Amino acid sequence: MFNLDGLAHTLDTTERYTTQAVNRDYSMNNNDPDSVNKNFENNIGWKSDTVAWNIYPGWYPDANFYGTFDDVMKRKTALDSRSMGISEYGWGANVNQHEANPELGKNDLTSGGKWHPEEYQNKRNTLLTATLRQDGLL
Description:
By secondary structure, the chain is an alpha/beta fold.
């Protein structure tokens, strides 16, 4: 990614920003676990002018996504001083599965489970958009 950023600026001299979508708090070179780099300011794996995060708060059992939307974004902001956006967010949903009051962890409603009622995604999305409105981001 580091080389691609430089190449993009060389080929396009209109001063457009480069960006990338990421979903981890670290980078690796060629999926090599020994190359994990968590220093974003000097991180050759994450070189771009801006960054956009793929976030899934409270969905995947992964430290990158623990907590509320605010919790996740506070961690991301603390990692990186670049301008940032959200490139993807969400929770599993299946248009053929429905439940009146879905709760995470019940009826196999987990990221790895087979039950992903649409109503759970809607419930979480409603909470997220309310948070964004409250924070003046929508």
